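Exam revision sheet. Question 4 asks you to relate a sequence to its structure. Input first:
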Amino acid sequence: MSESNESFEKDLDQLIKLFKRIREKSENEHLSQLDPAFLQNLDFIINNYEMIKHNIPKEMFGQMGFPFQKVLREFILQLKEEMGDDIYEEGNKDLAADIHKIDNMLQNPGNLSEEEINDLLDKRSEIIKNSSDMASPDH
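Answer key, structure tokens:
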């Protein structure tokens, strides 16, 4: 997969993460006034993306092209501005908790297969990489 395709896929993943944070915040904070139809659509997008994200042909990312990716990045930046910095603070706590959970599982691998251990290591690496992507000025 080309670097451009990977970048586009990361942007989509980041957008879905932002949607998830909006959804979480809508349940208990100042975003509780959001339109229920909007929240239902948000749930639909999140759930369907999670179901199909591994089935999206990599070539499709290339076909979408730079203009669509540019719009996507602008939308992500706009969401970040509107949501404020607190959207990342809570997300970073979640990431730290996920890493801690994985570390605990890896410290006691008694009934884990080698494949499960490798999957956990991959997931841990991906979480760390994604957290550094979110912290970068480009995202």
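Marking note for examiners. The longest helix spans residues 58-83.
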